[in-house]
Amino acid sequence: MAPPAQSQRSPSPSQPSGKSEVSDLKLQLRQLAGSRAPGVDDSKRELFKKVISHMTIGIDVSSLFGEMVMCSATSDIVLKKMCYLYVGNYAKVNPDLALLTINFLQRDCRDEDPMIRGLALRSLCSLRVANLVEYLVGPLGSGLKDNNSYVRTVAVIGVLKLYHISASTCIDADFPSILKHLMLNDSDTQVVANCLSALQEIWSAEASTSEEALREREALLSKPIIYYLLNRIKEFSEWAQCLVLELVAKYLPSDTNEIFDIMNLLEDRLQHANGAVVLATIKVFMQLTLSMTDVHQQVYERIKAPLLTLVSSGSPEQSYAVLSHLHILVMRAPYIFSSDYKHFYCQYNEPSYVKRLKLEMLTAVANESNTYEIVTELCEYAANVDIPIARESIRAVGKIALQQYDVNAIVDRLLQFLEMEKDYVTAEALVLVKDLLRKYPQWSQDCIAVVGNISSKNVQEPKAKAALIWMLGEYSQDMQDAPYILESLVENWDEEHSGEVRLHLLTAVMKCFFKRPPETQNALGAALAAGIADFHQDVHDRALFYYRILQYNVSVAERVVNPPKQAVSVFADTQSSEIKDRIFDEFNTLSVVYQKPSYMFTDKEHRGPFEFSDELGNLSIGVEAADNVVSAQRVEANDKDLLLTTSEKEETRSSSHNGSAYTAPYDGPATSVYASQTQLIETAISNPASAGQAQQASLAIDDLLGLGLPAAPSPPPPSPQLKLNSKAVLEPSTFQQKWRQLPVALSQEHSISPQGIAAFTAPQALLRHMQSHSIHCIASGGQSPNFKFFFFAQKAEESLNYLVECIINTSSGKAQIKIKADDQSTSQAFSTLFQSALSKFGSQ
Questions:
Q1: Residue 810 contacts by C-beta under 8 Å, 6 or more apart in sequence?
Q2: Which of 454, 472, 500 finishes a domain?
């Protein structure tokens, strides 16, 4: 039986069958190169389409370069465009091939068709090959004098491209002077706009080294040039109008009459259909009237209608951009927009980012006259199916209440939120009620009556649970079940994963103990014992601090932990007035959309020196030599693989500043409660008269809190038994592979002693110290105060590796340690050894 015939499929132009097809294309192009037969241009088009198709999908068709250039000898513009596209693509990666294009491009620059002249000139300037700049000067000079405006437009941009390839060639050819002449005398506004753009870029770059360029740049802001551009502004395209208006915003008029003349001239630009033109015009109006208070306020009134129209008539993206600018104006003059609050109501079909910004606007424009309507609208959003928007709406209600507008009605609304059977609504309302009680203590009775009915088991979000615990401690005298609720929370201490909640729980139990001691005694003892044994450094430190201050004097402890409080008058703003003014100065830029000054997202030093990923990626690591003291590869601070990620920075910041600033002088969080007796011994040495009293107070507190009386202090932990290889060697590639493959065995935080911080004058000192403990550094990086190290160690007599990432903050004295190991069971022993070595740094 004959085998079935295979189906034959003709290869697609975008799927070549192999090198033979490229060879066929080359042969066909060569046959058509010199042909003048009828219909030859159509055949060339088909072949050119195949070549461009192959090039687009990454197939190397550079071998057809000569044939493509020969076939470009035609008047067909479509063929010219495809040929120029091909030439530009391969000239960048192969400068030698670019030499073959010079003759035919220069010939096309003299073509009778202005479209071909312009296209050829653009392609010639787009080659961007440094050794071909001498061939650009002549065609550019001719193009700037061409009778056709399109050619002149292309030539102006070509001058700018030439400047970036070879600035000296551009300046020596006196092209900036020619551009200035064209800007002031050319009849085509697009040529004028291109000249203005090119001159601004060239003279700004040259101003740092040339006084003449500095004077020329300042001359652009002279009255004749500004008025010349303003008188022709209606002829410009939208892009060009924005360019001119940006220049006018920097102009300093000589008197008020000139200011009004400019504003009258630009009045109709506020009705322009393009939002960019409107925003650029608004920036001019505001910059001109900054020193004229009354007129500046009238400008706000005038620009309000155009902005609100743009918000409601454009796409969601345009609405968000305009709303961002409107938001910064509302923050500066909320009273002007207070009557237009309904424009900021959320529509059902708007994306969430627009709704979120509108909620901020509603919060900003709220005052005595419109608070009721705004709060009523916001309460409707609390039942929104979009949970993040529902949360934001509840927060907005709370912000309005903190502004002292119609507090009575708002508090009633928030208490109604607490009774809703939605966890996220209850959570957000609890956080807001806490802030309200801090500002309006007189509402405590009404709020506590409702909060007392909320079960702590139904509150799972850390911030909400922390707020509930704060109220239980602060108002425990008014809440009958407060001690018992706190006691149940302490009993479930190990199940609470949030350090913030555990910190609040410690403080709340202390406050409750001072108000209702018999009912809270056992809960306080259990809380202090659990807190001192807690792995979270801040929780451990705060518990130890509370224990010691109770040892010292209970009345002093009460004055420290639960002093008389004054109502909070103003909550801190998230942005300083200086930042807001800086954003306002950068109106009509991305700074307004990002809500931060441009230097914060453009300058590297303000983005932060640490922008690494958690993975090593393409980390370049050097090999350590066994006989060298330290030969760790220093990696630049901007290496993306050795810089802290944003999340790591936030974790470090939160752990460094979360809770009490008190730091316990112990190496680890597992310190025994009874180790605090050491402090009493030190007290006895320094002050014998008070030693007996302190010892009695300690025993009394231990007995009071039910911690028991130890027969003797706990013996110090035995020295670690793990032995390391002092001459360990690990290949960089092996380190990198293991780091990617191994899971994280331990992640801990370690406090570095003040002596260690003082000794940390240079990273090399730490590397030598760790190597003396058989722990070797394979890579390091960072800048003060943050440094990042990668260490490795090997178990003696076994080929088991331990990999360590250690991030040290010298300002907070904390080290974030992440350990990976071939043998997970020995990770804890190695961690103890590593931290022991780190704690000895500076003390030896």
A1: 757, 760, 784, 785, 786, 787
A2: 454
pLDDT of residue 707: 55
* Residue 369 placed within a domain: yes
Residue 806 forms part of a structural domain: yes
**Residues 69-77, mean pLDDT to the nearest whole number:** 78
Are residues 117 and 108 in contact, defined by beta-carbon separation less than 8 angstroms?
yes
CA-based nearest residue to 651, from 465, 786, 803: 786
Last residue of a domain, one of 454, 472, 487: 454
CB 258 within 8 A of CB 220: no
CATH code, domain carrying 757: 3.30.310.10
720 Cβ contact partners less than 8 Å away, ≥ 6 residues apart: 829, 832, 833, 836
Radius of gyration for the chain, computed over Cα atoms and rounded to the nearest angstrom = 37
Does 610 have pLDDT greater than 90? no
pLDDT confidence of residue 14: 41
Q: Are 32 and 41 in contact, with CB atoms under 8 Å apart?
A: no
Using alpha carbons only, what angle is made at residue 517 by residues 512 and 519, rounded to the nearest 5 degrees?
Answer: 85
* Residue ranges making up the domain that contains 798: 732-839
Distance, in Å, from the CA atom of 333 to the CA atom of 465, rounded to the nearest integer, reads: 37
The identity of residue 698, as a single letter, is: S
Domain count, the chain: 2
Contact in structure between 802 and 819 (CB atoms under 8 Å): yes
Q: Which two tokens stand for residue 146?
A: 């061409």
Closest CA to 799 of 709, 719, 734: 734
Query: Residue 599, Cβ neighbours under 10 Å: how many?
Result: 13
Report CA-CA distances (Å) from 100 to 4, 51, 103: 51, 18, 7
Q: Which residue has the tokens 């129209």?
A: 309
**Rounded CA separation 331/577 (Å):** 11
Average pLDDT (143-170) is: 93
Residue with tokens 């190169």: 33
pLDDT given at position 238: 92
At 755-789, the pLDDT tens digits run 787 777 767 888 888 888 899 988 888 777 778 88
Q: How many CB atoms lie within 10 A of CB 74?
A: 15
**Mutual angle of helices 189-206 and 175-185, in 10-degree steps:** 140
